[in-house]
Amino acid sequence: MKTLIVAVNSKFIHSSLAVYYLKSVCGEDVGDVKVLEYTINDQKDQVLASIYSENPQVVAFSCYIWNYEYIKDIIADLKALMPQIKILLGGPEVSYNSAEVLNEIDGADYIIAGEGEEVFPLLLKHISLAKKNEEFTDIKGLAFRKGGKVFFDNSYNMVSDLDSIPSPYSDEMINNLGPNRILYYESSRGCPFSCSYCISSTFEGVRYFNMDRVKDDILKFVDRKVKQIKFVDRTFNCNNKRAYEILEFVIQNAGDTNFHFEVAGDLFDEKMLNLLKKAPKGLIQFEIGIQTVNLQSLESISRKTDLNKLFYQVKRLIDLGNIHIHVDLIAGLPMENYDSFKNSFNSVYHLNSHQLQLGFLKLLKGSKIRNEARVFQYVYKKRHPTRF
Length: 388
Known about the structure:
By secondary structure, the chain is an alpha/beta fold. It has 2 domains: 2-151, 3-Layer(aba) Sandwich (Rossmann fold), CATH 3.40.50.280; 178-371, tm_1862 like domain (pyruvate-formate lyase- activating enzyme). The protein contains 13 helices and 15 strands. The protein has helices at 18-24, 44-53, 68-81, 98-104, 119-128, 171-177, 211-223, 240-252, 270-276, 295-300, 307-320, 338-349, 368-371, and strands at 2-9, 32-39, 58-62, 86-90, 110-112, 142-146, 149-151, 182-185, 188-190, 206-208, 228-231, 258-263, 284-291, 324-331, 355-360. A 7-stranded mixed sheet has the order 2-1-3-4-5-6-7, with helices on both faces. The protein has a 6-stranded parallel sheet with strand order 8-11-12-13-14-15, covered by helices on one side. Helix 12 links the parallel strand 14 and strand 15. Helix 2 (44-53) crosses helix 3 (68-81) and helix 7 runs parallel beside helix 8. The longest helix has 14 residues, at 68-81.
């Protein structure tokens, strides 16, 4: 049995971490498993022809807000062209309303809700053994069709022991990056905070990969001269002791690789700032979410931020002169109006950070704020964006 795991990235410089995680957990007993990566800028007919030429029995798509409509179109044409294949969906855009998605997309056969590393190889084994869908009820968090109806137990998969997952950072993955693409990396999953616009707040707690594993991966990336490593930990420094150890290791083993971290600016302490002074210029960059300086807005989205400490520490980081500082704002938050947003923008602009990124609020599936749309009188597009 041949399985294709397909990623559709938003830009060429991006890479997909999820698809290589899934490949890493597949043993020889599930047959031939291959990863294909495209972007939403690729011609759909070319993508369709590329998938068809592989003659797969199973095609799995990783679904996000930016590629959902694109993937829907590919599925419709692919199922018409190859009606016998099985199509599997996963990812955050299908994990919170899996039954609804299966009813919407006739060509999709299965959806894995949540993290797929434990479920994906089990499902492939079931398919390879030609089991009937009636026998799939033992797979947690799996939506599928049964007797003409959609069956889903409304459960959500999470891997309790992250170190049980083999490393996705194979030579194949790194070689496919080429010289100019970003490699995404996670040293943890989850977030201790509960910002209502973020799907990381949909489950509690933070799980960590073993520190020795993280250090081994960092050395591999530096040795392979990967251009940029972007940590996708939702709040990298939520555990200051752990963050310090990783940053110290990065500084001690500095090479040509740039490391990007998403951090909470108000969690920095003196010990961390003294360490960062030692970093070679260009080695480290921080993305710091400020989002708004409106206290009512912060309260309405359950975001805990000490604004005075945040601005003080961001200024100190900028003054170090060796760390690239990227700050974020979100337009459209609850309790925010034009005057309030203007105040937020001006306050953040005058920090003189190296980059200010303005994002627009997205009511993501699974997020608390999407469920509160009526409370805050939000009107939003039901159709996903076709460009991101």
